[in-house]
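Standup notes
- DV: blocked on the single-chain target, sequence here:
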Amino acid sequence: MAFVDADKLSYEIFSILESKFLYGLDDPNKLFFPTSSSYSSAGASPRTATRAGGRIRILSIDGGGSPSDALLAAVALARLESSLRRRSGDPSARVADMFDVAAGSGAGGVLVAMLFTRDHDGRPLFSATDALHLLLSESRRRRGRGFSSRRGLFRGMFRRPGSFFRRIFGDATLRDTVKPVLIPCYDLATGAPFLFSRADAVEADGYDFRMWEVCAATCADASTAAVDLRSVDGRTRVTAVGAGVAMANPVAAAITHVLHNKPEFPFAAGVEDLMVVSLGASAPAPAAPCAAEFVRIAGEGFSDMVDQAVAMAFGRRRASNYLRIQDTAFMSGNCTPKTTSSAEAAERVLSQRHVESQLFRGRGKTSERTNGDELDRFAEELVKEEEWRKKGPIPTVVLKQVMTPRTSSATTATTVTVTTTISTSTTST
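- DV (later): unblocked, structure below
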Protein backbone atom coordinates (compact mmCIF):
# COMPACT_ATOMS: atom_id res chain seq x y z
CA MET A 1 0.00 0.00 0.00
CA ALA A 2 2.88 2.34 0.75
CA PHE A 3 4.21 1.77 -2.75
CA VAL A 4 0.84 2.69 -4.29
CA ASP A 5 0.57 5.83 -2.16
CA ALA A 6 4.07 6.88 -3.19
CA ASP A 7 3.16 6.36 -6.82
CA LYS A 8 0.07 8.52 -6.42
CA LEU A 9 2.02 11.25 -4.64
CA SER A 10 4.72 11.22 -7.33
CA TYR A 11 2.10 11.57 -10.06
CA GLU A 12 0.44 14.49 -8.28
CA ILE A 13 3.78 16.26 -7.77
CA PHE A 14 4.72 15.70 -11.42
CA SER A 15 1.36 17.07 -12.57
CA ILE A 16 1.79 20.22 -10.49
CA LEU A 17 5.36 20.82 -11.69
CA GLU A 18 4.38 20.14 -15.30
CA SER A 19 1.49 22.57 -15.05
CA LYS A 20 3.70 25.24 -13.50
CA PHE A 21 6.62 25.04 -15.89
CA LEU A 22 4.84 24.13 -19.13
CA TYR A 23 1.88 26.45 -18.79
CA GLY A 24 3.19 29.13 -16.43
CA LEU A 25 0.55 28.64 -13.75
CA ASP A 26 1.87 30.14 -10.53
CA ASP A 27 -1.40 30.18 -8.61
CA PRO A 28 -1.64 26.86 -6.68
CA ASN A 29 -5.42 27.19 -6.53
CA LYS A 30 -5.63 26.89 -10.30
CA LEU A 31 -3.86 23.54 -10.27
CA PHE A 32 -6.74 21.77 -8.54
CA PHE A 33 -10.29 21.21 -9.58
CA PRO A 34 -13.39 20.43 -7.52
CA THR A 35 -14.72 16.91 -7.56
CA SER A 36 -17.34 16.41 -10.27
CA SER A 37 -20.17 13.98 -9.71
CA SER A 38 -21.15 14.02 -13.37
CA TYR A 39 -18.59 11.30 -14.19
CA SER A 40 -19.49 8.85 -11.45
CA SER A 41 -22.02 6.79 -13.44
CA ALA A 42 -21.82 3.10 -14.26
CA GLY A 43 -18.99 2.28 -11.90
CA ALA A 44 -16.66 5.12 -12.88
CA SER A 45 -14.77 7.01 -10.24
CA PRO A 46 -15.53 10.73 -9.80
CA ARG A 47 -12.88 13.07 -11.11
CA THR A 48 -10.54 13.68 -8.22
CA ALA A 49 -9.60 17.13 -6.99
CA THR A 50 -5.97 16.64 -7.95
CA ARG A 51 -6.61 15.68 -11.57
CA ALA A 52 -5.35 18.56 -13.67
CA GLY A 53 -6.39 17.25 -17.08
CA GLY A 54 -9.58 15.87 -18.62
CA ARG A 55 -10.18 12.55 -20.30
CA ILE A 56 -8.82 11.96 -23.80
CA ARG A 57 -11.61 11.09 -26.25
CA ILE A 58 -10.76 8.42 -28.83
CA LEU A 59 -12.76 7.33 -31.87
CA SER A 60 -11.86 4.02 -33.54
CA ILE A 61 -13.50 2.55 -36.66
CA ASP A 62 -12.87 -1.02 -37.83
CA GLY A 63 -12.01 -1.84 -41.41
CA GLY A 64 -14.01 -5.04 -41.65
CA GLY A 65 -13.78 -7.44 -44.56
CA SER A 66 -16.13 -5.55 -46.85
CA PRO A 67 -16.11 -1.88 -47.88
CA SER A 68 -19.86 -1.75 -47.20
CA ASP A 69 -18.95 -1.80 -43.52
CA ALA A 70 -18.32 1.92 -43.87
CA LEU A 71 -22.07 2.49 -43.92
CA LEU A 72 -22.52 0.84 -40.51
CA ALA A 73 -20.02 3.25 -39.00
CA ALA A 74 -21.41 6.20 -40.99
CA VAL A 75 -24.97 5.60 -39.75
CA ALA A 76 -23.75 5.20 -36.16
CA LEU A 77 -21.69 8.40 -36.39
CA ALA A 78 -24.62 10.33 -37.86
CA ARG A 79 -26.70 9.19 -34.87
CA LEU A 80 -23.91 10.17 -32.47
CA GLU A 81 -23.42 13.57 -34.11
CA SER A 82 -27.15 14.33 -33.97
CA SER A 83 -27.14 13.51 -30.27
CA LEU A 84 -24.06 15.69 -29.71
CA ARG A 85 -25.75 18.66 -31.39
CA ARG A 86 -28.91 18.21 -29.38
CA ARG A 87 -27.15 17.84 -26.03
CA SER A 88 -24.60 20.62 -26.60
CA GLY A 89 -27.12 23.07 -28.06
CA ASP A 90 -24.75 23.67 -30.99
CA PRO A 91 -26.40 22.83 -34.35
CA SER A 92 -23.05 23.03 -36.14
CA ALA A 93 -21.17 20.61 -33.84
CA ARG A 94 -19.17 17.92 -35.63
CA VAL A 95 -17.90 14.53 -34.54
CA ALA A 96 -14.35 15.90 -34.87
CA ASP A 97 -15.15 18.60 -32.30
CA MET A 98 -15.82 16.05 -29.57
CA PHE A 99 -12.91 13.64 -30.14
CA ASP A 100 -9.18 14.21 -29.63
CA VAL A 101 -7.87 11.25 -31.65
CA ALA A 102 -9.37 9.17 -34.47
CA ALA A 103 -8.16 5.82 -35.81
CA GLY A 104 -9.66 4.03 -38.79
CA SER A 105 -8.79 0.90 -40.75
CA GLY A 106 -9.86 0.15 -44.32
CA ALA A 107 -13.24 1.74 -45.06
CA GLY A 108 -13.12 3.06 -41.49
CA GLY A 109 -9.94 4.93 -42.37
CA VAL A 110 -11.77 6.63 -45.24
CA LEU A 111 -14.45 7.82 -42.82
CA VAL A 112 -11.82 9.12 -40.40
CA ALA A 113 -10.18 11.02 -43.25
CA MET A 114 -13.52 12.50 -44.35
CA LEU A 115 -14.50 13.63 -40.84
CA PHE A 116 -11.11 14.93 -39.66
CA THR A 117 -9.43 16.48 -42.72
CA ARG A 118 -9.44 20.29 -42.55
CA ASP A 119 -11.45 22.49 -44.91
CA HIS A 120 -10.28 25.90 -46.17
CA ASP A 121 -12.00 27.56 -43.18
CA GLY A 122 -10.30 25.32 -40.61
CA ARG A 123 -13.41 23.20 -40.01
CA PRO A 124 -13.72 19.48 -40.88
CA LEU A 125 -14.51 18.72 -44.52
CA PHE A 126 -17.59 16.68 -43.62
CA SER A 127 -20.11 16.25 -40.89
CA ALA A 128 -21.06 12.62 -40.22
CA THR A 129 -24.42 13.16 -41.93
CA ASP A 130 -22.74 14.70 -44.99
CA ALA A 131 -20.33 11.75 -45.21
CA LEU A 132 -23.20 9.27 -45.00
CA HIS A 133 -25.16 11.07 -47.73
CA LEU A 134 -22.10 11.25 -49.97
CA LEU A 135 -21.45 7.52 -49.62
CA LEU A 136 -25.08 6.72 -50.39
CA SER A 137 -25.13 9.14 -53.33
CA GLU A 138 -21.93 7.69 -54.77
CA SER A 139 -23.28 4.16 -54.37
CA ARG A 140 -26.47 5.10 -56.28
CA ARG A 141 -24.40 6.74 -59.02
CA ARG A 142 -22.23 3.67 -59.44
CA ARG A 143 -25.22 1.37 -59.39
CA GLY A 144 -26.65 3.39 -62.27
CA ARG A 145 -23.44 2.73 -64.20
CA GLY A 146 -23.96 -1.03 -64.09
CA PHE A 147 -22.63 -2.25 -60.74
CA SER A 148 -25.10 -5.00 -59.91
CA SER A 149 -23.77 -6.31 -56.58
CA ARG A 150 -23.55 -4.09 -53.52
CA ARG A 151 -20.25 -5.69 -52.50
CA GLY A 152 -18.74 -5.12 -55.94
CA LEU A 153 -20.03 -1.57 -56.00
CA PHE A 154 -18.36 -0.60 -52.72
CA ARG A 155 -15.17 -2.45 -53.58
CA GLY A 156 -14.81 -0.26 -56.64
CA MET A 157 -15.67 2.81 -54.62
CA PHE A 158 -13.07 2.29 -51.89
CA ARG A 159 -10.38 0.00 -53.20
CA ARG A 160 -9.56 1.61 -56.52
CA PRO A 161 -7.22 4.58 -56.08
CA GLY A 162 -9.00 6.85 -58.49
CA SER A 163 -11.17 9.87 -58.93
CA PHE A 164 -13.43 9.33 -55.88
CA PHE A 165 -10.63 9.82 -53.36
CA ARG A 166 -8.95 12.54 -55.41
CA ARG A 167 -12.20 14.42 -55.81
CA ILE A 168 -12.73 14.45 -52.04
CA PHE A 169 -9.25 15.22 -50.75
CA GLY A 170 -7.34 16.81 -53.63
CA ASP A 171 -3.81 17.65 -52.40
CA ALA A 172 -4.61 17.45 -48.67
CA THR A 173 -2.05 15.54 -46.61
CA LEU A 174 -1.89 14.01 -43.14
CA ARG A 175 -0.86 17.42 -41.81
CA ASP A 176 -4.16 18.87 -42.97
CA THR A 177 -6.25 17.26 -40.22
CA VAL A 178 -7.99 19.06 -37.37
CA LYS A 179 -7.02 16.36 -34.83
CA PRO A 180 -4.50 13.49 -34.69
CA VAL A 181 -5.43 10.60 -36.97
CA LEU A 182 -4.07 7.05 -37.26
CA ILE A 183 -4.75 5.02 -40.42
CA PRO A 184 -2.98 1.65 -40.85
CA CYS A 185 -2.02 -0.49 -43.82
CA TYR A 186 0.28 -3.47 -44.32
CA ASP A 187 3.60 -2.70 -46.05
CA LEU A 188 4.73 -5.57 -48.28
CA ALA A 189 8.18 -4.02 -48.62
CA THR A 190 8.96 -4.37 -44.90
CA GLY A 191 6.56 -7.21 -44.09
CA ALA A 192 5.01 -5.25 -41.22
CA PRO A 193 2.07 -2.97 -40.44
CA PHE A 194 2.56 0.72 -41.28
CA LEU A 195 0.66 3.42 -39.43
CA PHE A 196 -0.04 6.72 -41.16
CA SER A 197 0.00 9.30 -38.37
CA ARG A 198 -0.49 13.05 -38.19
CA ALA A 199 2.00 13.24 -35.31
CA ASP A 200 4.72 11.65 -37.47
CA ALA A 201 3.79 13.83 -40.46
CA VAL A 202 4.19 16.99 -38.38
CA GLU A 203 7.58 15.81 -37.11
CA ALA A 204 9.07 14.88 -40.49
CA ASP A 205 8.23 15.48 -44.15
CA GLY A 206 9.20 11.87 -44.84
CA TYR A 207 6.05 10.67 -43.07
CA ASP A 208 3.59 13.10 -44.63
CA PHE A 209 1.41 11.44 -47.28
CA ARG A 210 -1.43 12.68 -49.47
CA MET A 211 -4.73 11.78 -47.88
CA TRP A 212 -6.28 10.27 -50.99
CA GLU A 213 -3.32 7.88 -51.27
CA VAL A 214 -3.57 6.99 -47.57
CA CYS A 215 -7.21 6.02 -48.15
CA ALA A 216 -6.27 3.94 -51.19
CA ALA A 217 -3.53 2.21 -49.18
CA THR A 218 -5.69 1.23 -46.22
CA CYS A 219 -8.39 -0.12 -48.59
CA ALA A 220 -6.07 -1.89 -51.04
CA ASP A 221 -7.27 -5.38 -51.94
CA ALA A 222 -4.57 -7.97 -51.24
CA SER A 223 -6.18 -10.35 -53.74
CA THR A 224 -5.76 -7.98 -56.68
CA ALA A 225 -2.93 -5.45 -56.48
CA ALA A 226 -1.00 -3.50 -53.87
CA VAL A 227 -0.86 0.28 -53.86
CA ASP A 228 2.54 1.95 -54.22
CA LEU A 229 2.80 5.39 -52.65
CA ARG A 230 5.48 7.81 -51.59
CA SER A 231 5.61 10.52 -48.99
CA VAL A 232 5.16 14.12 -50.15
CA ASP A 233 8.93 14.63 -50.22
CA GLY A 234 9.49 11.28 -51.95
CA ARG A 235 11.76 9.87 -49.23
CA THR A 236 9.48 7.16 -47.84
CA ARG A 237 7.92 4.49 -50.03
CA VAL A 238 5.16 2.09 -48.98
CA THR A 239 3.83 -0.90 -50.92
CA ALA A 240 0.48 -1.24 -49.23
CA VAL A 241 -2.32 -3.76 -48.96
CA GLY A 242 -5.41 -3.24 -46.83
CA ALA A 243 -5.14 -2.90 -43.08
CA GLY A 244 -7.52 -5.82 -42.54
CA VAL A 245 -4.50 -8.09 -42.99
CA ALA A 246 -2.92 -6.98 -39.72
CA MET A 247 -4.94 -4.25 -37.97
CA ALA A 248 -8.64 -4.48 -38.75
CA ASN A 249 -9.44 -3.11 -35.28
CA PRO A 250 -7.11 -0.13 -34.62
CA VAL A 251 -8.39 0.75 -31.13
CA ALA A 252 -5.36 -0.70 -29.32
CA ALA A 253 -3.01 1.30 -31.55
CA ALA A 254 -4.97 4.47 -30.76
CA ILE A 255 -4.86 3.85 -27.00
CA THR A 256 -1.11 3.17 -26.92
CA HIS A 257 -0.53 6.22 -29.13
CA VAL A 258 -2.24 8.43 -26.57
CA LEU A 259 -0.66 6.89 -23.47
CA HIS A 260 2.86 7.13 -24.90
CA ASN A 261 2.55 10.55 -26.55
CA LYS A 262 3.22 12.82 -23.57
CA PRO A 263 3.96 15.98 -25.59
CA GLU A 264 0.41 16.03 -26.96
CA PHE A 265 -1.41 14.24 -24.11
CA PRO A 266 0.54 15.18 -20.97
CA PHE A 267 -2.08 14.03 -18.44
CA ALA A 268 -3.03 10.64 -19.94
CA ALA A 269 -1.54 8.17 -17.46
CA GLY A 270 -3.90 5.20 -17.81
CA VAL A 271 -7.22 3.95 -19.12
CA GLU A 272 -9.03 5.92 -16.41
CA ASP A 273 -7.97 9.03 -18.38
CA LEU A 274 -9.57 7.83 -21.63
CA MET A 275 -13.03 7.78 -23.25
CA VAL A 276 -13.21 5.38 -26.21
CA VAL A 277 -15.89 4.77 -28.84
CA SER A 278 -15.07 1.75 -31.03
CA LEU A 279 -17.25 0.97 -34.07
CA GLY A 280 -17.04 -2.58 -35.39
CA ALA A 281 -17.93 -4.24 -38.66
CA SER A 282 -21.24 -5.69 -39.79
CA ALA A 283 -21.71 -9.44 -39.66
CA PRO A 284 -21.47 -11.34 -42.98
CA ALA A 285 -24.32 -13.45 -44.25
CA PRO A 286 -23.57 -17.21 -44.02
CA ALA A 287 -21.92 -18.59 -47.12
CA ALA A 288 -19.75 -21.49 -48.19
CA PRO A 289 -16.25 -20.63 -46.92
CA CYS A 290 -13.83 -19.62 -49.63
CA ALA A 291 -10.36 -18.10 -49.43
CA ALA A 292 -11.75 -14.56 -49.14
CA GLU A 293 -14.19 -15.61 -46.40
CA PHE A 294 -11.43 -17.28 -44.41
CA VAL A 295 -9.41 -14.07 -44.58
CA ARG A 296 -12.47 -12.15 -43.36
CA ILE A 297 -13.10 -14.61 -40.51
CA ALA A 298 -9.46 -14.35 -39.42
CA GLY A 299 -9.58 -10.56 -39.50
CA GLU A 300 -12.84 -10.39 -37.55
CA GLY A 301 -11.57 -12.91 -35.00
CA PHE A 302 -8.53 -10.71 -34.45
CA SER A 303 -10.77 -7.65 -34.11
CA ASP A 304 -12.87 -9.40 -31.47
CA MET A 305 -9.78 -10.41 -29.50
CA VAL A 306 -8.53 -6.80 -29.54
CA ASP A 307 -11.96 -5.61 -28.38
CA GLN A 308 -12.12 -8.13 -25.53
CA ALA A 309 -8.56 -7.41 -24.37
CA VAL A 310 -9.17 -3.65 -24.41
CA ALA A 311 -12.46 -4.10 -22.52
CA MET A 312 -10.65 -6.07 -19.81
CA ALA A 313 -7.92 -3.42 -19.63
CA PHE A 314 -10.60 -0.88 -18.74
CA GLY A 315 -11.84 -3.18 -15.97
CA ARG A 316 -14.76 -1.73 -14.02
CA ARG A 317 -14.48 1.49 -16.06
CA ARG A 318 -15.40 -0.23 -19.32
CA ALA A 319 -19.09 0.51 -18.69
CA SER A 320 -18.44 4.26 -18.66
CA ASN A 321 -15.13 4.82 -20.47
CA TYR A 322 -15.31 2.28 -23.32
CA LEU A 323 -18.11 1.71 -25.84
CA ARG A 324 -17.99 -0.92 -28.58
CA ILE A 325 -20.72 -1.06 -31.26
CA GLN A 326 -20.74 -4.20 -33.38
CA ASP A 327 -23.23 -6.27 -35.37
CA THR A 328 -24.00 -9.43 -33.38
CA ALA A 329 -26.67 -10.86 -35.71
CA PHE A 330 -24.30 -13.44 -37.19
CA MET A 331 -23.50 -14.79 -33.75
CA SER A 332 -27.19 -15.19 -32.90
CA GLY A 333 -28.08 -16.74 -36.26
CA ASN A 334 -30.25 -13.80 -37.35
CA CYS A 335 -28.35 -12.60 -40.37
CA THR A 336 -29.43 -9.71 -42.53
CA PRO A 337 -31.56 -10.78 -45.52
CA LYS A 338 -29.82 -10.30 -48.84
CA THR A 339 -32.55 -7.92 -49.95
CA THR A 340 -31.84 -5.51 -47.11
CA SER A 341 -29.88 -2.40 -48.10
CA SER A 342 -26.65 -1.52 -46.33
CA ALA A 343 -28.23 1.57 -44.75
CA GLU A 344 -31.17 -0.47 -43.45
CA ALA A 345 -28.78 -3.09 -42.08
CA ALA A 346 -26.84 -0.38 -40.25
CA GLU A 347 -30.04 0.99 -38.71
CA ARG A 348 -30.87 -2.55 -37.60
CA VAL A 349 -27.54 -2.78 -35.78
CA LEU A 350 -28.37 0.37 -33.82
CA SER A 351 -31.65 -1.21 -32.70
CA GLN A 352 -29.90 -4.36 -31.42
CA ARG A 353 -29.46 -4.77 -27.68
CA HIS A 354 -25.94 -3.79 -26.68
CA VAL A 355 -23.49 -6.59 -25.87
CA GLU A 356 -20.56 -5.96 -23.53
CA SER A 357 -17.40 -7.93 -24.29
CA GLN A 358 -15.93 -10.31 -21.73
CA LEU A 359 -12.57 -11.97 -22.26
CA PHE A 360 -12.89 -15.69 -23.16
CA ARG A 361 -16.54 -15.73 -22.04
CA GLY A 362 -18.39 -15.85 -25.35
CA ARG A 363 -20.21 -12.71 -26.49
CA GLY A 364 -20.52 -11.28 -23.01
CA LYS A 365 -23.39 -9.66 -21.15
CA THR A 366 -26.43 -8.35 -23.02
CA SER A 367 -27.71 -4.96 -21.90
CA GLU A 368 -31.31 -3.82 -21.65
CA ARG A 369 -30.36 -0.81 -23.79
CA THR A 370 -29.81 -0.77 -27.53
CA ASN A 371 -26.65 0.22 -29.36
CA GLY A 372 -28.36 3.49 -30.29
CA ASP A 373 -29.19 4.16 -26.64
CA GLU A 374 -25.55 3.58 -25.70
CA LEU A 375 -24.40 6.04 -28.36
CA ASP A 376 -26.78 8.65 -26.93
CA ARG A 377 -25.49 8.01 -23.42
CA PHE A 378 -21.90 8.34 -24.53
CA ALA A 379 -22.72 11.54 -26.42
CA GLU A 380 -23.83 13.05 -23.12
CA GLU A 381 -20.50 12.12 -21.52
CA LEU A 382 -18.59 13.62 -24.46
CA VAL A 383 -20.48 16.90 -24.11
CA LYS A 384 -19.85 16.94 -20.33
CA GLU A 385 -16.14 16.50 -20.98
CA GLU A 386 -16.17 19.39 -23.45
CA GLU A 387 -17.96 21.64 -20.97
CA TRP A 388 -15.56 20.66 -18.16
CA ARG A 389 -12.56 21.57 -20.31
CA LYS A 390 -13.90 25.06 -21.01
CA LYS A 391 -13.77 25.81 -17.27
CA GLY A 392 -10.23 24.56 -16.70
CA PRO A 393 -7.13 26.75 -17.10
CA ILE A 394 -4.89 23.85 -18.21
CA PRO A 395 -5.29 22.37 -21.72
CA THR A 396 -5.94 18.64 -21.78
CA VAL A 397 -4.47 18.23 -25.27
CA VAL A 398 -1.50 20.17 -26.70
CA LEU A 399 -1.36 19.35 -30.40
CA LYS A 400 1.84 19.70 -32.36
CA GLN A 401 1.54 22.53 -34.85
CA VAL A 402 2.86 22.62 -38.39
CA MET A 403 5.31 25.48 -38.76
CA THR A 404 4.65 25.97 -42.49
CA PRO A 405 1.24 24.46 -43.28
CA ARG A 406 0.52 23.67 -46.87
CA THR A 407 -2.54 25.08 -48.58
CA SER A 408 -4.71 22.34 -50.02
CA SER A 409 -6.69 22.42 -53.24
CA ALA A 410 -8.97 19.73 -51.84
CA THR A 411 -11.33 22.10 -50.11
CA THR A 412 -12.80 23.86 -53.12
CA ALA A 413 -13.56 20.65 -54.98
CA THR A 414 -15.02 19.03 -51.88
CA THR A 415 -17.28 21.95 -51.09
CA VAL A 416 -18.83 21.70 -54.55
CA THR A 417 -19.25 17.93 -54.17
CA VAL A 418 -20.96 18.16 -50.79
CA THR A 419 -23.29 20.94 -51.87
CA THR A 420 -24.42 18.93 -54.86
CA THR A 421 -24.73 15.67 -52.96
CA ILE A 422 -26.76 16.75 -49.94
CA SER A 423 -28.86 19.48 -51.44
CA THR A 424 -32.00 17.41 -50.71
CA SER A 425 -31.12 16.90 -47.07
CA THR A 426 -32.81 18.86 -44.32
CA THR A 427 -29.93 18.36 -41.93
CA SER A 428 -28.19 21.59 -40.98
CA THR A 429 -24.45 21.65 -41.37
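- Follow-up: The longest helix spans residues 291-314.
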